Prior knowledge:
Elements: E1 4-7, H1 17-22, H2 24-36, H3 50-53, H4 58-70, E2 73-77, H5 84-93, E3 108-112, H6 118-128, E4 133-139, H7 145-168, E5 171-176, H8 181-189, E6 192-196, H9 209-217, H10 222-235, H11 245-258, E7 263-268, H12 274-288, E8 296-301, H13 310-315, E9 320-327, H14 354-371, E10 376-381, H15 386-406, H16 418-428
Parallel strand pairs: 2-3, 2-4, 4-5, 5-6, 7-8, 7-9, 9-10
Antiparallel strand pairs: 1-10
Bound molecules: 5-phosphoarabinonic acid.
Amino acid sequence: MSNLSLDCENLKPFVSDEEVNKLQSEVSLCHDSLEQGSGKGADYLGWLRLPSNFSDSAEIDSAADSIRNICEAFIVVGIGGSYLGARAGVSYLNSSFPNQVGRQGGPEIYFAGQNISSDYHADLFDLIGGRDVCLNVISKSGTTTEPAVAFRLLKQMMEKKYGSAGARDRIVVTTDSSRGALKSLADELGYKTFVIPDDVGGRYSVLTPVGLFPMAVAGINIQELMEGARQGEKLYSNPSLEQNDAYRYAAQRHLLYQKGKTTEILATFQPAFHYLADWWKQLAGESEGKNLQGIFPASVELTSDLHSMGQWIQEGQRNIFETFLILESSRRQLKIPAFKNDADGLNYLAGETLDTVNEKAWLGTASAHKEGGVPNMTLKIKDRSPTSLGQIFYFFERAVAMTGYLNGVNPFDQPGVEFYKKNMFKLLGKPGF
Ligand code: PA5
């Protein structure tokens, strides 16, 4: 059963059905390369079958329960693909104010090591100083500077507070099965460890313990999330453009890019989707932006950004297209009240739900942008459930892999990321640089 549906009606003046259908043979070839492991980056296709290979969440749930029992604040230490999926999941599924509403039987969740800001980390340490803390450090390579620096600081703080043995029970490591400094440290100090499979790259790892363990600590039902991903695997492993929305989305993106639409804006109307958009930007940007090509992935949060970026989107340079991410039904409905004197002139909306107003804002925006020369499509999402989120993760992974193959690039490497590191290491005087 699909919790997602793609509506391409507003692309009609820009991309014809015929153009999409013509891509079928190319899509089929790319699909075969993915399925048979005969294309670029074939060593990193483990993500394709993560949902169907997932047996149960017992180990993750039990480790998460132990952590939930002993901590008030849980720190996820990681960067890029090693933290964005978990952050997307927590904000998609939990309260809009997760750390303010009380712990609902679980800890507050914080993120560290996704930057090297002294003030950010000092403020975080102030905040968690008086709380019982546990942490999950996540790094596939085990050598990434940002999380390694944050982990040093947090480990030192925790060992001071709990002693080495006490800290050991509060630290969980997620890393490669055999390589890397983090793996050696985990073995030496006896930390509980989760393994990131060799054949799954960082940005495709949300459905491994990288994303699943922090989400379980945040109280998210992992079994349901993986059931949704399994449904996604079934739905989006179909080579047919007509039947597979993920491939149709990829085909549209490919055609729009060929027509000079070099920036895609993912537009949401839900703050809960904020980090999902960040996860998507990393997935698409790092996978597709290479060999001097690739769609630039951007995002806006509406209606807020209609009052900032809306002008640009409506009348700026016409090199953009938009993908709306629309939630079909909120968990709770709020109705607009009637006011006696109608001073603000809003009584015509009295009794209407906020969902109705938000929907009309989306429809109005989509047609205004289409009129303004911005091709747009909409991915409708049934609800904010773990099942839907599992499908969304798999949908975008399939779509981005397909777009990468259609563009002739390897969607599973990121050689460009090394350039800043080399310069930074040289400037820092790292031996060997
Ligand atoms: O997608 C990727 O591979 C990257 O974004 C990595 O996730 C990111 O650089 C973090 O790497 P690591 O998990 O090795 O610390």
